[in-house]
Amino acid sequence: MRQQSPSSWAVICVCIAALIHFALGFAIEFSVDEAHYALYAQHLAWSYFDHPPLVGWIQWPLVALTSSEGVIRLIPELLWVVSCYLVYQVTLEVHHLIQGRNAGYLTSARPSANTCGLMAVLAIIAAPIPHVLAIGLLPDTLLAPLSLGLMWMALRWLAKDHFSMIDWILTGVLLGLAGLSKYTAVFTAIALLMIFLSSPRKPWLSKPGFWLAALVALLFISPVLYWNWVNDWISFRYQIAHGAGGTWLWRKLGAYLGIQILAYGPILILGAYLFVRHCIHGTRLSLLALLGFFAIPFVIFTSLSGGGGLPHWTSPAWFCLAPFAGIGLAKYWSSQRRRLIQILLIAQVLLCCIGFAYVLSGGISTAAVKSNPIADLYGWKAAGQKAAQLTQATKANGIAVQNWTLGSRAAWYAKPTPVFILDQRQDQFDLWFGTLPRGANILLMSWSGMSFAPPVGSQEAFERCEPLDTLEIERFGQILSKFEFSLCNNWQGK
User: In what side-by-side order are the strands of the sheet with 478-491?
Assistant: First the structure.
């Protein structure tokens, strides 16, 4: 490693990971969420039922030009690279700030700023979940670099104790883009506000730039507010109910914490622990407030996880923790105690490589096809095209599925055929395609990984459903899943 500088090694590692993402991006089909957000780009609007619009807007140019998953996935790949760059730069800024304000940090083993940056980037590369965000575009893929950008602006404030007008405008733009990415960006905004409040004096309250930044952020998110106002605030009501989850249970909380450790790796936790133990003594309250960019969203999501939660919701918070973890790891490394870091890095990178190979292989199928989670990533393109052909041949009113997670891939790969979700839940598909009219004939599409009984035999169902065709999905000689297509007549439901 002495042949290259730490910054060069950071670039090399990011490029290697990016090449792997690039190969995987062309090898697998869209996941549930990817197809859903690609449909955002196909149906441009001021906002959407379940998320703000930026995740759709940013894809629109490529979606308008191509249906290639690999090309469209260049967007999350670029955002991941930008996030790694920002992790490196924010680490340098935190390192310089500690050097200037923590005398104890200078007296013991002191790593270089570039070594700290390298360790922070390696901690992100060795974490499994960020690779998922690098391949598939989610709102969290957008929020991660924007949160790091706001963290960088917070560091500029701490270093100078004032902002120029350009700084205020840039802060407002970043806040506005974060709000257009995901509603949970409010947690990042609270973390930034805590930085301003941590200063003994509050001169920013009387600065025109502060209020201009707030106005710019408000202007950016105004499409979301307008759309929700027109649509009876359905998005806010859905997110509040979704965030609350179901019945709160301690075992769900324990499972969520365990999944977090596996999803982001113990090396980030080790680095954060080492930072708090060796680097935080004697620092100002304002510097401690920087940890709020991790602590505020992580604590909120974890406290809600007893009712349910998804592991990637905390990913922007972990990106914001990486600079502190990188400094802690680099300081430990400089003291010649390297074995634990080496073991954890190697183990986590091997785990990521095994995950990549598992996805490319199509997973491991058993007698129960439903037990293979990777089967969900294959076969939807062929099934969607077949469904569109059958719909046209039978002159059906469209395609129907019985859960929204089946609808996004069906709608993307069978476009422009309308897709209807046969449940009582209001969702984005109701806004795109309307409700299925009474008396309609429909092509029912079923998938073996999420099977339902045919909707017949009641007043809220079809008069009859007749099987038309089946499609088995194979990869490397093993059957991953099976699609069934039926023609259902005379819809009697709501």
Answer: 419-421, 399-401, 442-447, 478-491, 462-475
